[in-house]
Amino acid sequence: MDNAQVRVARVRVIVGLEVHVQLGTRTKLFCGCSTRFGNPPNSQVCPVCCGMPGAMPRLNSHALELAVRTTAALGGTIGSPVVWDRKQYFYPDLPKGYQISQLSNPVCQGGEVPFDIGEANQPVEMMTARIDHAHLEEDAGKSLHTGGNLPAGRSGVDLNRAGTPLMEIVTRPDFSSGRQARMFLAELRAMLVWAGISDGNMQEGNLRCDANVNLEIVGPENTFRTPIVEIKNLNSFRAVENAIDYEVRRQQVQSETTGSGATGKQTRGWNEQQGETFVQRDKESMADYRYMPEPDLPPAEIPASMIETCRPEPNLIPERFRERLRRDYGMGPYDSRVLVGHSREAAIYFCAVADACGDARMASNWIQQDVMAWLAEQNVGFEQYPVPADELARLLTMVADGHLNQARARDVLAEMVRTGDPAAQAVSRLGIVAVGESEIVRVCQQILKDNPAVAAEIQAGNLKATGPLIARVRKALPDANPVLIRQCLLKQIGE
Amino acid sequence: MTGPINLETLCELARLPLPEPESARGELQDELQRTLDFFGEIAAIETSGVEPLIQPLDVDPAPQPGTTHTSLMGNASLRDDVVVHGMDPSVATANAAETDGQYFLVPRVLK
Amino acid sequence: MMADFAGRTLVDLSGDVRSGKILAADWVRFCLARIAESNDTLTAFLAVDDQAAIQNAEAVDARIRRGDKVGPLAGVPVAIKDNISTAGILTTCASRMLERYRPAFDATVVERLKAADAIVLGKTNMDEFAMGSTSSSSAFGPVRNPWDRERTPGGSSGGSAAAVAAGMAAAAIGSDTGGSIRQPAAWCGISGIKPTWGRVSRHGLVAYANSLDQIGPMARSAGDLATILSMISGSDQHDATCQQKPELVPSGLLNVNTRELRIGWLPSQFENGAAGDANLPVRKAIDEIGGECRGMVELHSRYQSVLCGVYYIIAMSQASSNLGRFDGVRFTARFADNADPGDASDQLDAMYRQTRGTGFGREVRRRILLGTFALSAGAYDQFFSQASKVRRLVRDELLDMFRDVDVILSPVTVGPPPKLGEKVDRLRSYRADSFTVAANLAGLPAMSVPCGMTDEGLPVGIQMIAAPWREDLLLSLGQRWQQMTDWHLRRPS
Question: Which of A98, B17, C39, C88 has the most CB atoms at less than 10 Å from its CB?
Answer without folding.
Answer: A98
